[in-house]
Design goal:
This is GYD domain-containing protein. The chain is α+β, with helices and mostly antiparallel strands. The chain has four helices and four strands, in the order E-H-H-E-E-H-E-H. A four-stranded antiparallel sheet has the order 2-3-1-4. The two termini are 26 Å apart.
Length: 97
């Protein structure tokens, strides 16, 4: 599984309907399952981003399909970061010259 951190900002539409945000998060978790993606965590944040989500996807295509499907709903704009665990980094740096 590939891990991603997704940084989200509410659109104008998303802010107008912010009271529905927890319900939309639950719907997003269900949507993710259809792509084989597991939502590990969703937190609402103060500062530059409104929402931070941690996902595990079987591959990049699944993550991209989920991201595009979410964006098409019009409530958030996202920035997706590929994440690596400590174990992953140990393997990666072990291959360095």
């Amino acid at each position: 599984m590939v891990t991603y951190v997704v940084l989200g900002n509410f659109t104008d539409q998303g802010v107008r309907n912010v009271k529905d945000s927890p319900k939309r998060a639950d719907a997003f978790k269900e949507m993710a399952k259809t792509f084989g993606v597991t939502v590990k965590e969703i937190v609402w944040t103060q500062g530059r981003y409104d929402v931070v989500t941690v996902l595990e996807a079987p591959d990049e295509a699944a993550a991209m399909s989920l991201s595009l499907s979410l964006s098409a709903l019009g409530n958030v704009r996202t920035e997706t970061l590929r994440a690596f665990s400590a174990a992953d980094m140990t393997k990666i740096v072990g291959k360095m010259l």
